[in-house]
Amino acid sequence: MIKNNKKKIVHGVVHRVPEDLQKALVSNSVAQKAWEDITPLARNEWICWVTSGKKAETRSIRIEKTLSKLKSGMRRPCCWAGCPHRSS
Asked: Which end of the chain is less packed: N or C, by CB atoms within 10 Å?
């Protein structure tokens, strides 16, 4: 768990929340509240989806989409096979 400006950002099961995603979540209270409400496995999948982009541009786009989708109530990345690091 990371404390950033007195706000806590909870990590996933396998992955830690990268700094750029932490900053984005802290800057958006609605997305941060949704982040806190989802399961550790769901957080893990969002983190893995964001960090699996090979280009910096892709990663930035995925961070923006993560915020948008969390705010709209989506709990997991859509149309993605899931974190390859997950054993189950």
From this structure: C
pTM for the model stands at 0.81
pLDDT tens readout for residues 4-30:
455 678 877 778 899 999 999 999 999
Residue 48, domain member (yes or no): yes
CA distances (Å), 45 to each of 5, 29, 33, 58, 82, in order? 25, 20, 17, 16, 6
Q: Note whether residue 53 is domain-resident.
A: yes
DSSP secondary structure of 28-43: -HHHHHHHHHS-HHHH
Domain count for the chain: 1
Tell me the C-alpha to C-alpha distance, in Å, between residue 55 and each of 5, 22, 43: 29, 19, 21
Residues in the chain: 88
Contact 45, 82 (CB under 8 A): yes
